[in-house]
Design brief:
The chain is of the alpha/beta class and 344 residues long. Helix content is 44%, strand content 12%.
Length: 344
């Protein structure tokens, strides 16, 4: 057995240089076997979690123009939209009718929206409809604060008071500045993204973290990203989950490569070995489908990141009902439990 894997199995932290060796040189089967072993130790009751939430894309107007994104539109584009409060309310009510009490608000960077739009939306969802809300990625938060000439710390206080309870790890993709220049030069740098998440966590707004890979990133870029996340977690303990995604072909302007099932599972196993400070590793059924998702649960993951109602940014391969999620987990050989996405 590889000495680095033995080190992880002995509950000793592996260094970034060691993680790079695992990614570059060690067979994927060794890594997923170790990831599965660590998962079993951490969750001896063989439980696998799932979440159920509705994504509400409140606007597709965005000035950031990520090279890989086909969702954003300019203000002048006839396909652009900003949802009204009533439209958001209706979508949330539809989710509640399906037994889903969690809303994920996600939008583009639209400097023209008034501050009350965000406050009124949060108050309506949490105080009127009594749903939990995860919302506003770091890039959204930073640009909302800039648009309204206010310190980010004051904005977070305002949004939290209005009902915001957690912040997603969206907009990270790859926290390597060389890759971020290719992904989106207008987006936050790796440090800006990290500093924003640290401030959110310090304000009592926990959330999730992720990685998106499958372009022309190097193994070093991937490990650099994982190290940024682990360093933040050491400081704040604010990341409740970590999920691995792959880029999907959306535009002709961004190179996408085929990620094999073996590579994806290797990343899942590596994340379980590397993140000794993050409780939940999620396998992305939404992006990878159920067959690979089931294998992910035997590679280190303990959560399936489903179900998702209405996904407009990614092509969805996920589950659509709570019954489907629980059946999938049981058929895979585990005991399902519902996990609120704002809590461990």
């Amino acid at each position: 057995m590889n000495y680095i894997i033995e080190k992880a199995l002995d509950n000793k932290r592996i260094f970034p240089e060691e993680a790079l060796i695992l990614l570059r040189e060690v067979d994927w089967t060794e890594i997923v076997h170790a990831g599965n072993e660590i998962r079993k130790r951490r969750y001896p009751q063989n439980k696998v979690g799932y979440t159920a939430y509705r994504i509400i894309n409140y606007t597709n107007i965005c000035s950031i123009q990520c090279s890989f994104c086909s969702f954003c539109r300019s203000r002048e584009n006839p396909e652009s939209f900003v949802l009204s409060l009533d439209q958001i309310r209706q979508k949330a009510l539809e989710a509640k009718s399906l037994g889903v009490n969690q809303i994920f608000l996600q939008g583009g960077v639209h400097a023209g929206l008034p501050l009350n739009y965000y406050v009124d939306t949060l108050q309506m969802l949490t105080q009127e409809l009594h749903v939990e809300v995860r919302a506003f990625s770091p890039v959204e938060l930073v640009y909302i604060a800039k648009a309204h000439h206010m310190p980010l710390t004051d904005l977070l206080d305002l949004l939290k008071k209005a009902g915001l309870s957690s912040v997603p790890g969206a907009g990270a993709e790859l926290l390597s500045d060389s890759m971020r220049q290719k992904l989106s030069p207008k987006k936050l740098s790796a440090k800006e993204w990290g500093d924003t998440m640290i401030l959110c966590h310090e304000k009592g707004l926990p959330g999730s973290a992720n990685i998106v890979f499958g372009s022309d990133e190097t193994p070093k870029d991937i490990i650099e990203h994982l190290q940024v996340i682990r360093d933040i977690q050491d400081k704040t303990q604010g990341f409740l989950t970590f999920v691995a995604w792959t880029f999907q072909p959306q535009t002709p302007h961004f190179p996408i490569r085929h990620v094999t099932g073996q590579e994806y599972l290797k990343i899942i196993g590596l994340c379980r070995l590397f993140f000794d400070n993050i409780s939940h590793i999620e396998v992305s059924l939404l992006g990878m489908g159920t067959s690979l998702g089931e294998l992910g649960l035997y590679s280190g993951a303990d959560d399936i990141n489903s179900i998702v109602i209405e996904e407009n940014v990614l092509k969805s391969h996920g589950l659509t009902t709570i019954e489907e999620a629980e059946s999938f987990i049981k058929n895979a050989g585990f005991t399902p439990y519902f996990r609120r996405f704002n809590f461990d």
